[in-house]
Design a protein that fits this description.
Elements lengths: L1 H26 L1 E6 L2 H19 L2 E6 L5 H9 L6 E5 H9 L20 H4 L10 E12 L12 H4 L9 E4 L2 H11 L7 H5 L2 H12 L5 E4 L4 H7 L5 E5 H11 L4 E16 L6 H11 L2 H11 L6 H4 L20 H4 L3 E2 L2 H20 L1
């Protein structure tokens, strides 16, 4: 009887342990911080849901506006709740410098389908100390051609020409992206934008150009607002994340047009918060999200350009409309040359000061 009692107790303990391990596995999750709106919905389709299906790890999402202040506060309080973060390239540099982000090991990222190591497959600069590029996108200029029946705008200079192309304009209520477009509109070649912007005279030049349309600008603060402004007729032209304009064109039949020149292009970056509650799950997610087929799927669905050579070769048709997505791939060197590459180091060093100057200018 004592032996049976012992076995019974042991069996109960083992059963309880087994059930606990199942519950823990089922409850395992990571929190991904992203831009919200259609962007996060697209990420859910391409990354989050397939990752959960493959690994059993649930993905919870939180929206943000790119400000690292909340992560700083969480780390100071010792209560970090974020695992993976999606943000601008300069955010990765600032967060790394401040010790807010974990180091990335490129050897753990998915190789190309032919076995090429990730480090040799990514676009130059996409693998950083504390970040790995997700995709390339541009802050581009889009317009409603119905508003311009006689002649349509062709470049940033036309965007600033209120006489020839009347109507309200939508612009990002932050200096990054907006100042670059202003300089290109003022005749600065895309490749020269940051050489000019790095000088006091260049900054003054950008703000003077913005002065010419300031009274006709509707300022947007989140990426989901800009296409909505165009859709509602509040503006005739707007700057926007290119894919936020292109996806409605190819999927919903919107008659908008996008200018594939005079844009500011950059990359979104996957990052892992230092002190993340589930660093192992976060690493598994990076391994999954870095796969070439995931990058191509994001391009096919939402026109975000692949950041890996092996992914570019996989770009095909939109899964909803069947539209060929290759013409919208910014990673084509000829298209990229028509835009200005965002200088992440510049914004890592100057964003706070220029945001202050920008806000002061807005209030004048």
């Amino acid at each position: 009887m004592k032996v049976l009692s012992f076995i019974s107790k042991a069996a109960c303990i083992a059963s309880l342990a087994f059930m606990t391990s199942i519950d823990t596995g089922a409850a395992e999750s990571i929190t991904v911080v992203s831009w919200g709106g259609n962007y996060t919905k697209n990420q859910a389709t391409v990354f989050f849901e397939p990752f959960t299906k493959e690994t059993g790890i649930e993905v919870k999402t939180v929206d943000w506006n790119g400000d690292l202040g909340k992560l700083r506060a969480m780390q100071q309080a010792g209560q970090v709740t974020w695992d993976v973060i999606v943000g601008d390239e300069y955010v990765s540099k600032i967060g790394c410098d401040e010790g807010l982000l974990a180091q990335i090991n490129p050897q753990k990222l998915a190789p190309a389908p032919d076995g090429t190591p990730a480090a040799k497959d990514y676009v130059s600069g996409a693998i950083q100390s504390c970040g790995i590029g997700e995709m390339i996108f541009g802050t581009m200029l889009g317009y409603d051609p119905a508003k311009f029946p006689n002649e349509e705008p062709r470049n940033a200079a036309d965007f600033f020409d209120l006489t020839k192309f009347p109507g309200k304009r939508g612009l990002y209520k932050r200096p990054n992206g907006t100042l670059a477009i202003a300089l290109m509109a003022d005749g600065v070649a895309p490749a020269e934008v940051y050489k000019v912007l790095a000088t006091p005279e260049g900054l003054d030049r950008a703000f003077r150009k913005l002065d010419t349309i300031k009274r006709n600008v509707v300022w947007w603060e989140t990426f989901s607002q800009s296409p909505q402004l165009l859709n509602d007729g509040e503006v005739t032209m707007t700057s926007a994340s290119g894919p936020r304009l292109i996806q409605p064109i190819v999927q919903d039949g919107k008659r908008w047009k996008v200018l594939f020149r005079d844009f500011a292009w950059t990359m979104d970056v996957w990052m892992v918060a230092k002190g993340a509650p589930n660093p192992t799950g976060a690493q598994r997610f990076l391994e999954f999200a870095s796969r070439a087929d995931r990058g191509a799927a994001m391009a096919n669905l939402a026109a975000y350009s692949p950041i890996r050579a092996s992914a570019i070769a996989l770009v095909g048709r939109n899964p909803i409309s069947g539209a060929d997505m290759r013409p919208f791939t910014l990673t084509d060197p000829e298209i990229l040359a028509r835009g200005s590459k965002v200088d992440a180091d510049f914004w890592a060093d100057h964003l706070d000061a220029l945001q202050t100057r920008f806000n002061t200018w807005l209030a004048q």
